[in-house]
Amino acid sequence: MNTAKIELHLHLDGSLNIAWAYRKALQRNVIEKGTSFEDFYNILFARNLAHSAESIRKFELVCDLLQTFEDLYDATYDLCRRLNDIGIIYAEIRFASQQHCKKGLSQLDALQAVIDGADKAMREMDIRTGIINCLMHKGDSASFNEKENLEAIEASEKLFGNGLVGMDLAGYENNCDFKEYAPLFRIVKEKGIPFTLHAGEMGIGEHILDALAMKPDRIGHGIDCMQDQRYIDALKAAEIPLEVCVSSNVKTTMNYASHPIRRMIEAGLKVTVNTDNMIFARTDLANEHSQLKMIGIEEAFLIQSTYDSLDAAFCDQKTKDQLKQKLDKDFRR
For residues 18 and 25, what is the distance between their CA atoms, to the nearest angstrom? Predict the structure, then answer.
């Protein structure tokens, strides 16, 4: 299979260049001065976590490295450069603007920094990008950070069509009743902003139905749909693409081959292949494709999944048409 690939589910903070992150962590006093690169590596790559909430805490460390306009800009540009190097022709990069305001940035500033970093990459490289701003699950109810989530929607509306292509709901999805976030996404939908939702990743398949009731354009992960045929049927009826991230969801109790992606494909679900967090999962999209072929996923599926990713992308039709020409050329269609 040729190199052209499309990435729809990729977190900026979870995909930093680890050497850059280590230098910044020392400069910003995010880690103790005596912390070695090896110890820092082990912190970020820890896999034997007892609970998904522990994994979420790793994001706090990397978010602390991204609290200035310069750092957000540089991290985004560097990520785009690395994606371009492995043949990504389009990537939707997501982050939560509300997580980057500890040192005085507004959410609008944080969003602009990421958009500007991506813009620089697009001027210099062949890659195209779109930015997704995440609302966050926090606390024991949606009211815990409702103000910040509303501010994120406001900032996103201002930059929608100027680098920002969509919104998301991220964080620890089992904190509270998933449906509490529905009013926020009614606002997002009213503003005409496409959105995806992290749902059905952390053990509760019922969240698939909760997410579908909010009328998303895509669902992030969605692997818990395999718990019940009802969830599978609902996804198929809605024709909702799933942003599947195999390495990210492979824990110590699940090897790569036992991930449900093969059963999801066999069930006829719309599966796209993504990485989620390159630094935490120790992967990139080229590796995901390679690993999938090793467990028997046919190259024909990977090609079709790439076209399905393009169809599901939040970019405008002109960009899709240009990207399709590149795919057709690479896949000789």
Answer: 10
- Residue 2 burial (CB count, 10 A): 12
Q: Yes or no: say if 210 and 237 are a contact pair by the CB < 8 Å rule.
A: no
Q: What domains lie within the chain, and their CATH numbers? A: 5-317 (3.20.20.140)
Between CA 104 and CA 115 the distance in angstroms is 18
d(CA 4, CA 323): 10
What per-residue confidence (pLDDT) applies to 292?
96
Whole-number Å distance between alpha carbons of 79 and 93: 9
Q: Which runs of E-coded beta strand occur in 138-236?
A: 164-171, 196-199, 218-221
Amino acid letter, residue 181: Y
Residues of the chain short of pLDDT 50, as ranges, are 1, 49-51
Confidence at residue 50, expressed as pLDDT on a 0 to 100 scale: 45
Quick one: pLDDT at residue 255?
85
Strand partners, 6: 90
- Characterise 247 by phi-psi region: left (phi > 0), alpha (psi -120 to 50), beta (else): alpha
**Contact criterion met (CB below 8 Å) for 92 and 166:** yes
Tokens 């076209």: give the residue. 307
At 181, list the tokens: 């976030």
For strands 164-171 and 242-244, give the pairing. Answer: unpaired
What pLDDT is stored for residue 49 in this prediction?
A: 47
Q: Which helix (H) or strand (E) holds 95?
A: strand 88-95
**Burial zone of 41 (CB within 10 Å; 0-12 exposed, 13-18 middle, 19+ buried):** middle
Beta strand segments in 107-254, E: 128-137, 164-171, 196-199, 218-221, 242-244
